[in-house]
Amino acid sequence: MIGNWSVAHFRARFGRAAGRVAVGSSAPVTYGLITLCCLLFLLSPAAGLNPAYGSGEELLAAQRAYFHHWGVVPAELFEGAPRAALTPATALFVHGSWVHLLGNMLFLYVFGAMTEERMGRVQFTLFYLGCGYLALLGYAAANDDSTQSLVGASGAISAVLGAFLFLFPGARVTSLLPFLLFLPLRFPAWVVLPFWAALQWVAAGRAAQGPGVAYLAHLVGFGLGFGYAWARFGRPTRVKAAPAPAPEGENQP
Asked: Where do the TM regions start and end (predicted)?
């Protein structure tokens, strides 16, 4: 999951960018992905809302089976089964909890729309799915003996963050940082996003084998996103800041 930064509220604030990207412009792929992930979660046993999955131990068993079927299990992925080869794609639409879902969707909402506008709908869709697949594949390759299910869109969303950093380094991001008494501070993306990536790097080095946050998938996705934007677009987009209300939400591990 995207997270471990403990940023409670943030918003990229921007106006026109090179005459192509503007506040309020349409981003149907981004909003469609958010809607799809939310609907699938609500219908899944992970949400705990569907009585058909039972309760207590029965519900927990249904959740484990759901994650195992649709998520990436590294030990099974490299056995060559065709179904397992699809799981790095299906896992992008599966989330383990309400916090997991809302944290990821908030990041996608904040950074996805502007990136989609710059790339275009078709290119953004292929970019999101391709980088997300490779990010989870990279994590699985580094943990090829793990039987722990890996789910979530954070690899793909990390790629969006990487692309956003290259494309819009001057876009302002408003954050509430706990070690600064949650004072709202505005920083350009070239300060905020590398700081986030550095935290992922530190956390990945300390992560133990077993359940937890797939920090390595975040790093792989972020690097792929930045590299793709650099290779495809060649130069960042200049952004003129403009006031915009900040949404509320939590970014938790």
From this structure: 21-43, 92-112, 124-142, 148-168, 180-201, 213-231
- For the domain that residue 99 is a member of, what is the CATH number? 1.20.1540.10
pLDDT at 26: 82
User: Would you state the pLDDT for residue 146?
Assistant: 87
Residue range of the domain that includes 139: 10-233
Q: Which two tokens stand for residue 79?
A: 């056995």
Q: Residue 199 class from Cβ within 10 Å (0-12 exposed, 13-18 middle, 19+ buried)?
A: middle
Does residue 246 sit within a domain?
no
Give the pLDDT confidence of 119-141 residue by residue, as tens digits: 999 999 999 999 999 999 999 99
φ, ψ at 201 (rounded to 5°): -65, -45
Residue 248 lies in a domain: no
The catalytic residue positions are 154, 218
In a domain, 90, yes or no: yes
Number of compact structural domains in the chain: 1
* Inter-residue contact 97 to 161 (CB < 8 Å): no
User: What stretches in the chain show pLDDT beneath 50?
Assistant: 2-24, 177-183, 208-211, 240-253
Note the pLDDT of residue 228.
Answer: 95
Whether the Cβ atoms of residue 42 and residue 101 lie closer than 8 Å to each other: no
> Half-sphere exposure (CA, 13 Å, Cβ side) for 204?
18
The answer to the question of residue 220 being in a domain is yes
